[in-house]
Structures
1.
Amino acid sequence: MSVTTSLISSLRSSSLLGTKVVTPRSVVLSRRLLSTSYVPATKAALPSRANNVVPKTPAYEIVSSFYTAINSNDLSSARDLIAQDCVYEDLIFSSPFVGRTAILEFFGKFIDATSTDMQFVIDDISKEDSSAVGVSWHLGELPKLTRKKFIIGYKA
């Protein structure tokens, strides 16, 4: 059984996931990403929406910090990087995780179900938008010091 299959099986629950499973590759975090990193917008910046907020820190940096926290199994730091109304969409799941609580619950189960050697490696991250970030990632290999390897497509 592959690591991905066992991970999906261990994370699957009727309250979190639908029945459709696709290969994980891309993630979109949309809406407000970090509530504490937003400052009031000026009237010059957004004349019709002066009460809106604009990011003080670029959204892609917040998302990179989020994955760093997850890779460190630090849900407390990850919590500070997720706004209450954040939406986490991953192509492997049939519906998005909506809100800080749902996202943290998912990643808590992910951390519990995987080895500490499993790491998110960001392949590409969008930098154009301040309210939504697209991320392509893969799960990294074990550290070289263990001398263990993942075998994909082994034929005897």
Note: Strands lie at 26-30, 38-40, 53-55, 87-90, 97-98, 120-125, 133-139.
2.
Amino acid sequence: MNTLNIIRSVKSKMKIEFSVQVLGMLLLAFLPTYFGFTKQLALVYYFFYTIMLIFAIYYLSKFYSFYKKAENINSENIQDANWFYHELRIELAHYKSFHYITTFIASGFGILYCYFNKITLISLINKLEILIPS
């Protein structure tokens, strides 16, 4: 597989990933309505959602700018190919850190959700056992 095909393949996957991330963030905005959260819980949810959205805008803008810069590279030039390789590794590190951050934010909301709905760890495990067949 030559360099041009590799770069095209990565760019097509990046385009899909960007679209899915944006769609996912938009769908998360309607989660309280879909699940019928109380007003108090919806307020807490939107607080966490706003924090997550700020991080998402930052990381997705960096992701998009890398995607746009990658359109103008010459795959025959070894310096451009090296640039793409190193920038892709940096973007993958950003991608990982973005998902770590969103995981911790979502976990924080999950803990508060359990607190507001008075869900204990034991009752949560019992509910999960029903969903997972032995």
Note: Residues 78-116 form the longest helix (39 residues).
3.
Amino acid sequence: KNLQKLGEEALKWSAESNGNGEFEVRWQNQQVVVNLKKKNCTCRRWDLTGIPCEHAIQAIRKAKLKVYDFVAGCYFKDSCIRIYENSISPTAGREYWPLSQLGEVGVPPLRDSIKRGRPKKARRKEAGEKDSGKKRQKDPEREVAKPVKKKYKCTDCGEVGHNKTFHQNREAKELAKKKRAEAKQKEKEDIQRRKQLERAERNRLAALKKLQAKAAKQASSQVMADGSSQRPASQVSQQPSQDSHRSNL
């Protein structure tokens, strides 16, 4: 079945011989070399498996030879029969084995000097040898930022730095709750007081604007009154003559 599948895939390849057992097999932009004498191919599948690849099959067909003649002998039935035709000799138990003259092979003793932890990679310095003095410089790009420690806030007293488990006994919990309630009440009163002050400031500014507008209006009316009283007498005497002239017309 494997050869049949490879034979179908080999149909798309074209082979050209050089007359010395070597073939140049092509398909589109791919090109390999097959040597039928050495039974190898550039793709090396024939070398590793012992079964001709699709390139070798096309070259064998071009040479008008049989594909089965180029398959490795280990895949045939006769080879398997020859492998298992010899019988396996029975063996006696361990107590009947002959004793060796070289002595027993035991487990080597464990080293007591093995230390815990990762072994050092640095070379051991000789006696009198000084350190190079070179220290590894830290790379700022590789440094990882330390995580910011989370600040806990107590749900009983509202203070930062601990949680409600900090207050172990009941009296401490009640005191903490009372302290938190007083803080909330004080905060609420401060907000109300701030709102009252803002409201009073707005009312004061509105009243000031009204007074300024009223004063400006009074000043403009006073200016108009002063202007009419200071009009010249010639204009007043000319007014009756103009009226009499209009009546004559």
Note: The first helix runs from residue 2 to 9.
